[in-house]
């Protein structure tokens, strides 16, 4: 474990393989300490029960975390039929037990109701905020809060296996999807109830699960020590993806150093042609022949303005 009294201005994206049983924030704090990072943030929480990909932004990368918050996600889910819990997972209290009579075909037909754009009411135990506090804060105190219906999209949901009232699902979904709520709704549609027994996120945006690293791997690398007896920060930093990887879905626009200075001074950059067809479009700004990343800009009618820029 590195000496936390040394704080570094390290920047980049780490794809952490979060273990089950740990909150997303606890995992974030461990990574922050291991890298001795000045600033860190994660892009989309995972329940303590869940494992898998938790993208963590360090330093300047935190300025662009929203682009992963809005990305599609892929999950592998184990759901158990017959038992409904108050949290819709194994960590909750059983509130109803019913007989399971559903066949493989029944479940496939039920899943068709969750394909495409649907409305979802998140669990009372979700991390969704109400008046500055997460819903689970109120639920644990028996305080009712208004339901907040959300529109989400399920791009694909497939039944991979079903045996002894336990089913395996693969789900590709939009941002804001609550898998626990999805499984609870499925159980109610089947008439027997259901809850999440295990959940793993293996894909966020275009990032592959092959690039994930565990906390144990990070700890081993950090403890290997460098020549000056400090934690092996050089080896740790090699695990970081560049900040530009957060912006891969945005079109690129390369500008001159002079144009970059204009934007850094807070002034809009005049365009040679009208941008009527692209007003509001965000663009990844790069500079010069080396195409180093400047940040993100936004097209207006005949100018481009800076939205988020890296520190100069």
Q: How widely separated are the two ends? A: 31 Å
Shape: globular
Order of helices and strands: EHEEHEEEHEEEHEEHEHHEHEEEE
Proportion of helical residues:
10-25%
Low-confidence stretches: none
Summing up helix and strand content along with how strands pair, one would put the structural category as alpha+beta
Q: Which sheet architecture does the biggest sheet show?
A: 8 strands, mixed
The tally of helices reads 8
Q: In angstroms, what is the radius of gyration?
A: 23 Å
Beta-strand content bin: 25-35%
Calculate the mean pLDDT score and round it: 89
> Quaternary state, please?
single chain
Overall strand count: 17
Provide a descriptive summary of the structure in words:
This protein has 312 residues and is an alpha+beta fold. Helices cover 20% and strands 33% of the residues. It has eight helices and 17 strands. The protein has helices at 24-35, 66-69, 104-111, 135-139, 179-190, 215-223, 233-237, 257-264, and strands at residues 12-18, 40-42, 51-58, 73-81, 83-85, 94-97, 116-120, 129-130, 133-134, 150-163, 166-173, 194-204, 252-255, 269-270, 282-287, 292-299, 303-309. The strands form four sheets. Strands 1, 2, 3, 4, 7, 10, 11 and 12 form an eight-stranded mixed β-sheet that branches. Strand 5 and strand 6 form a beta hairpin. The radius of gyration is 23 Å and the shape is globular.
């Amino acid at each position: 474990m590195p000496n936390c009294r040394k704080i570094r201005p390290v920047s980049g994206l780490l794809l952490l393989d979060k273990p089950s049983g740990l909150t997303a924030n606890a995992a974030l704090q461990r990574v922050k300490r291991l890298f001795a990072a000045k600033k860190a943030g994660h892009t989309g929480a995972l329940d303590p029960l869940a494992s898998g990909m938790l993208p963590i932004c360090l330093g300047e990368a935190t300025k662009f975390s929203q682009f992963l918050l809005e990305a599609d996600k892929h999950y592998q889910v184990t759901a158990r039929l017959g038992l409904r819990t108050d949290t819709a997972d194994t960590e909750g209290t059983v509130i109803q037990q019913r007989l399971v009579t559903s066949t493989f075909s029944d479940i496939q037909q039920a899943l068709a109701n969750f394909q495409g754009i649907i409305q979802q009411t998140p669990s009372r135990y979700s991390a969704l905020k109400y008046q500055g506090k997460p819903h689970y804060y109120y639920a644990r105190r028996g305080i009712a809060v208004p339901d907040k219906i959300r529109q989400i999209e399920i791009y694909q949901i497939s039944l991979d296996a079903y045996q002894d009232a336990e089913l395996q699902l693969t789900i590709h979904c939009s941002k804001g999807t609550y898998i626990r709520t999805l499984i609870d709704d499925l159980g109610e549609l089947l008439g027997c109830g259901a809850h999440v027994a295990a959940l793993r996120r293996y894909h966020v945006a275009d990032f592959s699960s092959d690039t994930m690293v565990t906390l144990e791997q990070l700890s081993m690398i950090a403890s290997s020590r460098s020549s000056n007896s400090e934690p092996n920060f050089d080896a740790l930093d090699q695990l970081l993806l560049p900040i530009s990887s957060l912006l891969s879905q945005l079109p690129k626009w390369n500008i001159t150093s002079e144009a970059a200075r204009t934007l850094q001074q807070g002034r809009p950059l005049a365009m040679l042609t009208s941008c009527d067809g692209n007003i509001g479009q965000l663009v990844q700004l790069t500079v010069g022949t080396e195409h180093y990343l400047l940040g993100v800009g936004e097209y207006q009618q005949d100018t481009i303005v800076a939205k988020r820029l890296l520190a100069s």
